[in-house]
Amino acid sequence: MKSFAFITGLALLLGLIVCSLFVGVSRVTLVSLWSDPEMREILMLSRFPRTAALLLAGSAMSVAGLIMQMLTQNRFVEPSVVGTTQSASLGLLLVMIVSPAAPIMLKMGVATLFALGGTALFMLLIQRIRMKSSLMVPLAGIMLGAVFSSVTTFLAMKFDLLQSLGGWESGDFSSVMQGRYELLWLVGAMTLLAAVIADRFTVAGMGRDFSVNVGLHYGRVMLIGMAIIAMISGVVIVVVGVLPFLGLIVPNIVSLALGDNLRRTVPWVALIGAILVIGCDVIGRLIIHPFEIPVSALLGVLGAIVFLVLIVRSKRHAH
Amino acid sequence: MRTDASVSLSPGKRLLLLAALLVGLMGIFMTIGLNGNTAYILRHRGQILATMVLVGFASGISTLLFQTLTRNRILTPSVMGLESLFVLMQTLLIFALDVGGLSIFGSVGRFLAESALLVMFATLLYRWLLGGAGLDLHRVLLIGLVCGTLFRSISGLMQRLMEPGEFAVLQSRIFATFTRADADVLLISALVIMLVALVVWRLRHRLDVMALGPDRAIALGIHWQRHVTGLLLLISLLVAVSTALVGPMMFLGLLIVNLAYPLMGSWRHAHLLPGCVLIGIITLVGGQLILERLLDMAGTLSVVIEFSGGILFIYLLLRKGAK
């Protein structure tokens, strides 16, 4: 039954991928593909990279959210809630200020380092919170993110980069083309790695004492998890921008249906993340055709609503 | 509440000191580095100063009222998403009427229409949110923050759908600066604030009672629900004023009120209300002076306030969690 559902999901994804390939300003159809080499070029240079980027970024950010929720033992966090994304964009801005012409690898590296630093700071912060209400953790994270953002805005204003900052952060796939998205394959590899070592995160999610008892190297698993989260956030923000709330919605929906065994849920999280992002992108491209709405705007609205429902719902389960 | 016996200045004297400090700062702000076309510079600075006075006033009072209402030192109207709601209302109005339709209103009419929308929505939403029993603080806070994000996202979505001309009109109104003050809007803001100040001042003793919480306040004869609605109405008016003047400033009110409690050393609204107003204006004028004159960074006051306010918030959150 479950595998049947998964296959249905895959079919849906495939359908969306086809839609994503054929929706756009220039009309690419099967017939024109056959007859017109220019159309083939559009497909290979622009449409295919875009769809691949959506697929990779969507599933990776969802999986990053899932890992983060496991490691913090908290349902309400994901990289863009706790300051990981915000610190990554601070790092990116600093590279832009210090050396505007830096190669994309350097930008990505710095953004990833900052993401790692921001996540580590958040982890330290929540360990200081003695009364660990499940809602305190995201609150502290949101505030930490706000502090990072204010520093970023301040620097961007000072160096007159406010507009470019808005450009990066908007989570927009319209500029994704051949030669600009390939780094996302790295993120795909991270996602695979996460899937392979998923059961360790499951154990770590039971808490430190339990993990040490069953012989897990707790500190190392935490570090690996944080590194994966930071890399995914760093690369995604450099290549496509912020995808708000994605890591929050998808893992929560999946865990409601399937529970918390990561080995089983990681493929689902990746699949649904990809479906959601590609779906939002296709919708965004159709609403005000021939212009488009970036995915982040749609995800922001959708994610906030789902988050609200989760908070209000969790009241019934608590205590 | 703790009153410091060791520093035994009476609240009245403390207010006088603050007022003296404020007058001094204002004097410096108006006269420092005055050269060239004096009349023009004075008028320009006067407008900025007036904006700061009104915003300090509105943020201070609205946050104090909100904290009295919720009996909490962390909640502020803007943390709870009220300012983003106001931005959403502005966006909605521009979106629905487009620029041509708006110009019929004029800036005053538009301000009134936006405020009316805000007051209506905010009173409904937050009465429901804060009036409901059994909601713990963290949940309310998180709901507020997420509502803020939701409002911002919806505004963002609509801004994407707007025509460039409409967007330019909006853009100029949703980024916090102290220098764009429109004389008409300043005037109407001053009127609104005077009116609200009058009402709040008459309520000051009742506010002391309300700060004890709903149960005791009701036992002492306060009509709780009616007062909550009334206060929310006043708060949303003040938020409308400050957002219309300078745009959203998430942590300004938090900073002001958390300075005011220890500086005033009193829990009585008769002292806290003027204290918040004075501290609010001092924060803005003093901050602007330091930035502009000492650090040579004009126009970034709002960002600095966001930064220090955000850190204060985390600190309060951690201390609150430790208790």
Automatic annotation (TrEMBL), chain A:
- Origin, by domain of life? Bacteria
Q: Does the keyword Translocase apply?
A: no
User: Where is this chain's protein located in or outside the cell?
Assistant: Cell membrane
A GO molecular-function annotation: transmembrane transporter activity
Alphabetized, the UniProt keywords read: Cell membrane, Membrane, Transmembrane, Transmembrane helix, Transport
Coiled coil stretches, renumbered: none
User: Per UniProt, what is the membrane topology?
Assistant: Multi-pass membrane protein
A Pfam family in this protein? FecCD
Q: Which residues cross the membrane?
A: 51-68, 104-125, 137-157, 183-201, 221-246, 266-288, 295-312
Q: Which GO terms describe its cellular component?
A: plasma membrane
CDD domains cross-referenced by the UniProt entry: TM_ABC_iron-siderophores_like (cd06550)
Q: Which family does it belong to?
A: Belongs to the binding-protein-dependent transport system permease family. FecCD subfamily.
User: PANTHER family given for it?
Assistant: FERRIC ENTEROBACTIN TRANSPORT SYSTEM PERMEASE PROTEIN, PETROBACTIN IMPORT SYSTEM PERMEASE PROTEIN YCLN
Query: What name goes with this protein?
Result: Iron chelate uptake ABC transporter family permease subunit
**Species of provenance:** Erwinia sorbitola
Organism lineage reads as: Bacteria, Pseudomonadati, Pseudomonadota, Gammaproteobacteria, Enterobacterales
From TrEMBL, chain B:
Recorded GO cellular component terms are:
plasma membrane
Give the matching SUPFAM superfamilies: ABC transporter involved in vitamin B12 uptake, BtuC
Q: Does the keyword Lipoprotein apply?
A: no
Where exactly are the transmembrane stretches of this chain?
15-36, 48-66, 86-104, 111-129, 141-162, 183-203, 231-260, 272-291, 297-318
Q: Which domain of life is it from?
A: Bacteria
Among InterPro entries, the record links this protein to:
ABC_BtuC-like (IPR037294), ABC_transptr_permease_BtuC (IPR000522)
Topology in the membrane?
Answer: Multi-pass membrane protein
Q: State the UniProt keywords alphabetically.
A: Cell membrane, Membrane, Transmembrane, Transmembrane helix, Transport
**Compartments in which it is found:** Cell membrane
| GO-annotated biological processes | siderophore-iron import into cell
In terms of Gene3D superfamilies, this protein maps to: ABC transporter involved in vitamin B12 uptake, BtuC
Q: Which GO terms describe its molecular function?
A: transmembrane transporter activity
Q: Which residues form a coiled coil?
A: none
The similarity comment for this entry is: Belongs to the binding-protein-dependent transport system permease family. FecCD subfamily.
- Quote the protein name from its UniProt record: Iron chelate uptake ABC transporter family permease subunit
Source species of the chain: Erwinia sorbitola
Task: Show the taxonomic lineage.
Answer: Bacteria, Pseudomonadati, Pseudomonadota, Gammaproteobacteria, Enterobacterales
